[in-house]
Write a structure and sequence with these properties.
- This protein folds into three domains: about 5-115, Beta Barrel (Thrombin, subunit H), CATH 2.40.10.10; about 120-205, Phage tail protein beta-alpha-beta fold; about 235-305, no CATH class.
- It is built from six helices and 23 strands.
- It has helices at about 20-25, 55-60, 130-140, 175-185, 290-300, 315-320, and strands spanning about 5-10, 15-20, 25-35, 40-50, 70-75, 80-95, 105-110, 125, 145-150, 165-170, 185-190, 200-205, 215, 230-235, 240-245, 250-255, 270, 275-280, 305-315, 325-330, 340-350, 355-365, 365-370.
- About 35% of the residues are buried.
């Protein structure tokens, strides 16, 4: 690896162990993608000779007698360990070059949320349990994988009497957790680290506040730390959320327009565009106006990002690992786009002697809300 940056790869059934030197020598590239609102994925590429024992090792790992093969990918930068991926292998592909006799083995997988997508628990009762308790109970089943539930209570806490109603599990765990999150405008995802072997299963609102990461600098001579950065502004992306509720007394439908600025999604741009379209939220029809408005506020931020950006950086020059689902500052892009942005996606691309990241940013308006961007 690069000077000052070391890669650690651990593979094993249930409990991953450091791979041998033969495996590291055959490893040619690592790619890890983390995207807001989606499961994270990874891809390992190995170049093997036709008689390499790694063919057998990796292909046997996908056999039915080894249902879980765990992969832990970490990088050490300046003495600090960053866990990029803690997940499971899901797919193997071997491509052989007829001329050289060498083969390329590609191993793909997803984060630990994939283990929640195997068994259907439909019908399992949850007496007197609100959504939050059901989420914690479901995640607790996967404690053996180091999953720790992080559950943020919603405004829709509902604890029905068992004599009146008992909630029952619907489908597989992952789909059910995502449904419970969508019902209240929340998100569900698994975040690896900060310690190896530990992951947090987050169920809560998508939070766009917090300390920003080191600024991305462009057109700043020696201070430039990105290789490319381009912006786009599409005012048609912004839509006005309208929560539909039903007045109980008259059964009359009522639409409540919802602002896209909330304490959890503050304005990152000083000049937001006007909404040219609407987005009707119909699943709130049976709620009272206050509950419907609160659920609408939780969902409104998804329809407000008119500014987007794509770019790439060299981690050694940047000095840290850029993380998705967090804020980052931008400097040198011009008054319209300088300021804080939300990192929606990051793809780590690691090769021998190279560590780069492709990233995507988003925010809800032009011009910075801050006089100065934190370095």
């Amino acid at each position: 690896m690069l000077k000052g940056i070391n890669l650690t790869l651990m593979i094993g059934p249930a409990v991953p162990l450091p791979v041998s030197q033969d495996v590291l020598d055959a490893l040619t590239s690592v790619e890890v993608t983390t995207t807001s609102g989606e499961a994270s994925g990874f891809q390992l590429t190995f170049t093997l000779s036709a008689r390499s024992p790694l063919h057998t090792i990796f292909l046997l790992s996908s056999a039915v007698n080894v249902p879980f093969v765990r992969v832990l990918i970490m990088v050490t930068i300046g003495g600090s360990i960053e866990v990029l991926m803690d997940g499971m292998m899901t797919h193997h592909e071997v491509t052989t070059d007829a001329k050289t006799g060498h083969a390329t083995l590609t191993v793909s997988g997803q984060d630990l949320s994939v283990v929640m997508d195997y068994i259907d628990f439909s019908g399992l009762p949850y007496p007197a349990m609100p959504r939050e308790a059901r989420v914690a109970l479901i995640v607790a089943k996967y404690a053996m994988f180091g999953l720790i539930p992080v559950v943020i209570p919603s405004v829709m806490i509902d604890v029905p009497l068992p004599t009146e109603r008992i909630y029952r599990h619907q489908g597989k765990d992952l789909a059910y957790l995502q449904k419970l999150a969508a019902d209240v405008g929340y998100v569900f995802y698994v975040e690896p680290g900060p310690a190896p072997g530990i992951s947090f299963a987050y169920w809560g609102p998508e939070i766009k506040v917090g300390p920003p990461q080191p600024a991305l600098n462009i057109n700043m001579d020696a201070h430039t730390n990105v290789e490319s950065l381009s912006f786009s502004f599409d005012k048609n992306k912004k839509k006005l959320p309208i929560v539909m509720i039903q007045i109980e007394a008259t059964k009359t439908p009522l639409g409540i327009p919802i602002p896209d600025i909330t304490p959890l999604s503050p304005p990152l741009g000083l000049l937001p565009p006007l909404s040219l379209g609407v987005k009707y939220i119909n699943e709130t029809a049976k709620l009272n106006p206050l509950q419907g408005a609160l659920i609408g506020i939780a969902k409104a931020a998804k329809y407000s990002d008119a500014v987007s950006a794509t770019g790439s950086l060299d981690v050694l020059r940047y000095g840290k690992v850029l993380k998705a689902r967090k804020l980052v500052g931008v400097r040198g892009a011009g008054p319209a786009f300088d300021g804080l942005h939300y990192v929606t996606s990051v793809t780590h691309k690691i090769k021998r002697g190279e560590y780069k990241q492709d990233f995507k940013l988003a925010r809800n308006g032009l011009l910075s809300t801050l006089p100065r961007v934190p370095v």
